[in-house]
Amino acid sequence: MAIQKFIESRPAAFLHDNFRCIRFPAAFALREITEILSLCDGVVNVAVVTSATTILSLLESLPLQRLVVFWAEYFTTASCLNLTHLTHLGIRDWRDNALDPWYGLSLIPRLTHLSFYDLNAVVLATVGVLQRCQSLGLLVILCGNQFRFNWALDVRDTPVEKLVADPRFCMLVVHDHWHDDDWEVGARGGRCGHTCA
């Protein structure tokens, strides 16, 4: 890919000083993601559209402040302690079958902003996340449309009163289905879902 050739042609200091935000669309192969992240070691904002856990060690080695990922299993373990700079996290595929799904999230030392991009079992998990993650200042569920927003609150067997009463909880309708536009606006310093909430 052209971007990979461009990155490989630059000196390490240039890559460290100038690459701060990277979003890897689905077209990127795991090998390309690994190579680019290993070269761009100053990145602080990453969005990854892959469920491959092999890049976790690379992510842990970066000074990441913002991360959007397509896997959540990692966030149920104590490995989250390695994300020492992370303040903003977006999870796109929460899994309902985790025994204690918010355990790892509560271990991320500086986590202040958390977003869920998929409503499957998310509303059920949010009560536990808010209880366990004391450093969390904002928990946002981004919905694709108003219908899904209403469905999440009405259908789920959730103590909605606890969620609504917690000033850290917010649900927003974001019309971009995969929320890539929202990530890019935030990466450029604009009004993203976290800012609007």
Can you give keywords for this protein?
197 residues, alpha/beta, seven-stranded parallel beta sheet, 35% helix, 16% strand
Protein model, in words:
This protein is an alpha/beta fold and 197 residues long. It has one domain (22-28, 46-196). 35% of the residues lie in helices and 16% in strands. A seven-stranded parallel β-sheet has the order 1-2-3-4-5-6-7, with helices on both faces. The mean pLDDT is 76.
Would you kindly provide a brief summary of this structure?
With 197 residues, this protein is α/β, with parallel strands linked by helices. The protein is 35% helix and 16% strand. It contains nine helices and seven strands.
Strand tally: 7
Write down the domain tally: 1
Strand adjacency order, main sheet: 1-2-3-4-5-6-7
Tally of separate helices: 9
User: Looking at the structure, what is the overall shape?
Assistant: globular
Based on CA atoms alone, the radius of gyration comes out at 17 Å
Q: What is the residue-averaged pLDDT? A: 76
Which spans have pLDDT < 50 for at least 5 consecutive residues? none
Helical content stands at 25-40%
User: What's the helix-strand series?
Assistant: HHEHEHEEEHEHHEHH
Q: Structural class, please?
A: alpha/beta
Distance between the termini: 36 Å
Major β-sheet annotation: 7 strands, parallel
Strand content: 15-25%
